Amino acid sequence: MYNNLIVEMIKKGYKLEDIAGTLADLLDCPEKIIESKLKNTQDFTFLEVIKINEQIFDNKMDLKYLFAKESNDNATYCKHFIQETPPSKWWN
Fold first, then answer.
1. So where are the chain's domains?
2. What whole-number distance in Å separates Cα of residue 77 and Cα of residue 20?
3. Fewer CB in a 10 Å sphere around the end CB: N or C, the chain?
4. Where do the H-state alpha helices sit in 2-42?
5. How far apart are CA 3 and CA 38, in angstroms?
């Protein structure tokens, strides 16, 4: 589960039961797909991650933190966001 994403949305004032619907409206996709993504059965696309950070968090959240996946007591980061490339000035 994307616990950090959920917790941070709650901190912004969203209700837990409304998070999937809010993200579905934002990303223009069915709520069931968002529920699957929140449960880690599907991945968010890079563009979806950017849009969530931009529209909900005003580009103020660290993407690695926000989209960290919980796995066996350890946080593992979504494969889409860990790349073997030099850091960009946009991510600092």
1. 3-91
2. 21
3. C
4. 3-11, 19-27, 31-38
5. 8
